Amino acid sequence: MQAILLVGGFGTRLRPLTLTTPKQMLPVLHRPMIEHVVCGLSRHGVDRVVLALGYGDEAFRAAYPDGRCAGVELCCVVESEPLDTAGAVRFAHTAAGMDDSAGPFLVANGDVITDLDVGEMLRLHRVAGAEATVHLIEVDDPSRYGVVVTDPDGRVGAFVEKPPPPAPSRWINAGTYLMEPSVIGRIDGGRRVSVEREVFPAMAAAGTLWALRHNTYWIDAGTPETYLQAQLDLLDGRRGPAAAGVSPAAVLDAGAVVERSVVMAGAAVGEGAMVRGSAVGVNAVIEAGAQVLDSVVGRAATVGRGARVTNRTLVGEGVAVPPGQALSGARVPEAA
Q1: Is 235 among the domain residues?
Q2: How far does Cα 29 stand from its chain's mean position?
């Protein structure tokens, strides 16, 4: 099976981290986010992934010069202009020369990390004779997602993007789809087309869209909260055995305190410093007496002596937080 990963966005919700690194190339527990996504697909038989690229495409090519990622063949295609989700799928399908005779293909958002059983999704898709099948997850607050209403058999009756409360359902579009090649014919060329706002509602009206409701592990790692949570979930053993957060290539002073945190290769944590519930990037420095709590410190950044960085603060690549400064919920530097 082949898959298209949508990785062309600007990652604005994770600025300033994404000012220098595309979102899906940001590290999640010592390796890029994209590798966690591709590994999940490969476990279910995906052997070729097409990256629908836009912003920062050179970073992906540089990271995988041999055209393989996590053991899977990688094909990179780059939009000359943003085409939205459906437009990107159509462009990638055509530019990568995907064969219609191969049957259904997967489409996934590149910042979604999930343990979805693609085989179960494919079985439903085939039994239903669906043109496309959407993975759904149940959430407490569906207001920032696409809400999906189905009948008892899974046929989609309505697809409502980001509804105002009260929402008609708590089952949301989880960002992984199975599509028949005929879906490409539903997408106009040469303009921006949204899967969520145009293509899926039209298919729901035609009775050809189905959904798999499956509450497996799932996280949209595209916000400061969820980007950090994806890493803590691995430390906590929510996805297999608990992982080690501190790289063997990191340097921790004997008097430093590191709790439930990721400290990446080349990073240093000084005497009396505390890192708790946080991620410290490659070659970053946490100086003596500094505190990093529930925050992310980017590659080669420095948190000065006695400084305090808390409450989902994001410190960008190479930035120096002055000694003694206190930051809470900040983004440094502030994005324009």
Answers
A1: no
A2: 13
Same domain, 218 and 271: no
**Using one digit for the tens of pLDDT, what is the confidence trace for 205-256?**
999 999 999 999 999 898 999 999 999 999 999 888 889 999 999 999 999 9
Task: Determine the Cα–Cα distance for residues 140 and 82; give it in Å rounded to an integer.
Answer: 32
Taking residue 160's Cβ as centre, other Cβ atoms within 10 Å add up to 20
Tokens representing 256?
């430093």
pLDDT interval class at 80 (50, 70, 90): confident
- Look-up: residue for tokens 């960085």? 309
Q: Can you read off the two tokens belonging to residue 153?
A: 């058999």
CA distances from 288 to 166, 213, 246, 329 (A): 49, 49, 18, 22
d(CA 124, CA 319): 49
Contact 192, 185 (CB under 8 A): no
Residue whose C-alpha is closest to residue 69's, from 40, 37, 35: 35
CATH of the domain at 73: 3.90.550.10
Closest CA to 122 of 41, 50, 68: 41
Please confirm whether the linkage preceding 65 is cis (ω < 30° from 0). no
Per-residue pLDDT tens digits for 13-59: 899 999 989 999 999 999 999 999 998 888 888 999 999 988 778 88
Residue 133 CA to residue 70 CA, distance in Å, equals 26
Q: Are 155 and 113 in contact (CB under 8 A)?
A: no
The model carries a pTM of 0.89
Percent of the chain with pLDDT over 70: 99
pLDDT band at 335 (very low <50, low <70, confident <90, very high): low
Domain housing 71:
2-223
